[in-house]
Amino acid sequence: MLKAVRAILFDWHGVFDKIRFESLVEYLFTNANKSRLTQEEIKEILISIGSDDFTKGNVNTIKFWNVLSQTFHVNSITAVRDIVLQVDRNEYLWNHIKSLYEYRIGLLSDCPRDKKDIILTNLRLDDPFEFKLFSCCTHTNKEQDEFFMEACNQFNLLPKDVLFVDDSLKNVVKADSLGFETFLFNWKTEVELEKKTIDFFSSLSIKI
After folding, report:
1. Cβ proximity of 171 and 108 under 8 Å
2. pLDDT tens readout for residues 137-175
3. Cα angle at 99 between 122 and 10, to 5 degrees?
4. Rounded to whole angstroms, what are the CA distances from 13 to 21, 22, 34, 83?
5. What are the backbone angles phi and psi of residue 189, rounded to the nearest 5°?
6. Contact status, residue 14 vs residue 113, Cβ threshold 8 Å
7. CA atoms of 17 and 1, how far apart (whole Å)
8. How far apart are the first and last CA of the chain?
9. Nearest to 166 by CA among 8, 2, 1
């Protein structure tokens, strides 16, 4: 079934990059959690201090990190920022990306400005992306139809012709509701990451 799609729209975090939003939550849970908050409570606090607007590029990056530092009473704002502002490439995927030569490839990422700059610095000249849509540039995110439909406009294709790949179930459900083919790239351990990468290629009848 997936063989019929003409383009693949990839998420960045958790797919091409092992760094995810959960990495920040896990760091705060382990290293800045004097109130013994749950990870869900930490996520709610991050949203309350503007993480969504930060991702959409509507909040100054320095201001957001300062507010986060004050809210969680962290000793080093640099240490917290470094959790997010790095790229840890999923080499299992990168090593076989040329196997997708039959497909047009785009990037759709919920991503703040400072991480966007890190991503672009780490991309190579032969990166596979026909276009790169970052939430901080469009001021929309994956909770909004417009973000997905802008990717379709970039491809000049209908959602049914595009496979959307993301590690978040919420995002995959959203894309499915808009008519996209979808693949849930969820994983927790390095072993699961490698297997999920193999499963992704297998879904397209590509053996790696």
Report:
1. no
2. 999 999 999 999 999 999 999 999 999 999 999 999 999
3. 50
4. 8, 10, 28, 13
5. -110, 165
6. no
7. 27
8. 19
9. 8
Find where tokens 């969680």 sit.
72
- Specify burial of residue 82 (Cβ count, 10 A radius: 0-12, 13-18, 19+): exposed
Specify the amino acid at residue 125: L
Can you read off the two tokens belonging to residue 90?
């999923």
Q: pTM for the full model? A: 0.93
Q: For residue range 22-41, what is the model confidence (pLDDT) as tens digits?
A: 889 999 999 888 889 999 99
Query: What per-residue string of b and e applies to 38-77 under the rule 16 or more CB within 10 Å gives b?
Result: eeeebbebbeeebbeebbbbebebeebbeebbeebebeee
Phi and psi at residue 206, in whole multiples of 5°?
-115, 120
